[in-house]
Amino acid sequence: MSDQDSYEVLASQTRFRGRVIEVRVDDVRMSDGSVAERELVAHPGAVAIVALDDNGAIVLVNQYRPAVRARLDELPAGLLDVDGEPALAAAKRELAEEAKLAADQWHVLVDLFSSPGMTDEAVRIFLARGLTAAGGDFAAENEEIDMTVSREPLAEATRRVLTGAITNASAVAGILAAVHGRATGWRELRPADAAWPARPGR
């Protein structure tokens, strides 16, 4: 019997449906036969990009996040909210929109569940290299109006992760994965179109 079979969902009720997320309450049978109520957030998933330039500097964006009431240094990133759009296409779009950049080389760096105790949000983090300027007519709105874009050495970004100055989950995972990837000569990277079974809706 698989874990999925032993933790059977007996009932599910949607309590809220917003523009991006849904909140539902599931009654789940536990492994001992008891039933527990779980509040869960359904999320379309997201992509993030570790964009490294030829000098080994990483591209970071900084924007205000209302949930934590703070500005955070993050990777260029965005929702998988376009029906049928492959994750790689979404990553290329987000890198162009947020950082005005394109890349010649793309690989999967790491996949993660952002907070599996309460949401199915899955994030695929790409590595983008061979950076060039990209045009486009993306119109920033809301928090992105005053978003800033910067570059800093990967070693400095890593130091700031370890001192708690960079706390965005995707940025932390992507930066540390990039350090490992570079140390191993990028030999363990997956192709940019690698299968992603954890992507929501698949």
User: What's the number of helices?
Assistant: 4
The SSE order reads HEEEEEEEHEEEHHE
What spatial order of strands do you see in the largest sheet?
7-4-9-8-11
Quick one: how many beta strands?
A: 11
Provide the helix percentage. Answer: 10-25%
Unreliable parts: none
Condensed summary:
With 202 residues, the protein is an alpha+beta fold. It is built from four helices and eleven strands.
Using brief descriptors, characterize the structure shown.
alpha+beta; 40% strand; 11 strands; 4 helices; 202 residues
Q: What this model shows, in words?
A:
This protein has 202 residues and is an alpha+beta fold. Helix content is 20%, strand content 40%. It has four helices and eleven strands, in the order H-E-E-E-E-E-E-E-H-E-E-E-H-H-E. The strands form three sheets. A five-stranded mixed beta sheet has the order 7-4-9-8-11, sandwiched between helices. A three-stranded antiparallel beta sheet has the order 1-2-3, with no helix packed on it. A hairpin with a 4-residue loop joins strand 1 and strand 2 (22-29). Helix 3 (154-162) packs across helix 4 (169-183).
List the helices and strands and how they pair.
Blueprint lengths: L2 H4 L2 E9 L4 E8 L5 E8 L3 E6 L5 E9 L4 E5 L2 E3 L7 H13 L1 E13 L8 E12 L14 E6 H9 L6 H15 L6 E2 L11
Parallel strand pairs: 4-9
Antiparallel strand pairs: 1-2, 2-3, 4-7, 5-6, 5-10, 8-9, 8-11
Helix pairs in contact: 3-4
